[in-house]
């Protein structure tokens, strides 16, 4: 079983593109265990507090999806962005990261880490080795 860190924007895929990310991860990796960082849940809740309408629906759906994942408790250090935390934990654990954030993907790849992302709005693809 491969543990995969899910980024916030990856949790938005099901509502945007009608793709079951958990099923797709299992198809791609054989058997995947989705992991969410406590800081990502914090980020979702922060955005939800100042959202309404469609944006609120998107992020409340993301929060429900996050609840299906194993949560890793981490602290956001002074000056760290949420992406910095993901990068740090991925480096420390070697876990691949599922994200559609192109800037974060570049940083992860530069660090030699595996990324999983949505390609052509229809399928997941791996960049690097699991």
Please give the CATH architecture: 3-Layer(aba) Sandwich
Low-confidence stretches: none
Arithmetic mean of pLDDT: 93
- Rg over CA atoms, rounded to whole Å, is 14 Å
Strand order of the largest sheet: 3-2-1-4-5-6
Total individual domains: 1
State the end-to-end distance: 11 Å
Q: CATH superfamily, please?
A: 5'-nuclease
What letter string, H or E per element, gives the SSE order? EHHHEHHEHEHEE
Instruction: Let me know the largest β-sheet.
Output: 6 strands, mixed
Give the strand content: 15-25%
What is the helix fraction of residues, given as a range? 40-55%
Structural class: alpha/beta
Could you say which overall geometry the principal axes of the C-alpha atoms support? globular
Structural write-up:
With 130 residues, the chain is of the alpha/beta class. The chain has a single domain, classed as Rossmann fold, CATH 3.40.50. Helices cover 50% and strands 20% of the residues. It is built from seven helices and six strands; from the N terminus they run βαααβααβαβαββ. The protein has helices at 8-11, 13-17, 21-29, 38-49, 53-66, 82-93, 102-110, and strands spanning 2-6, 32-37, 70-72, 97-98, 115-119, 123-127. β5 (115-119) and β6 (123-127) form a beta hairpin. The protein is globular.
Q: What is the secondary structure topology, with strand pairs?
A:
Layout: E1 2-6, H1 8-11, H2 13-17, H3 21-29, E2 32-37, H4 38-49, H5 53-66, E3 70-72, H6 82-93, E4 97-98, H7 102-110, E5 115-119, E6 123-127
Parallel strand pairs: 1-2, 1-4, 2-3, 4-5
Antiparallel strand pairs: 5-6
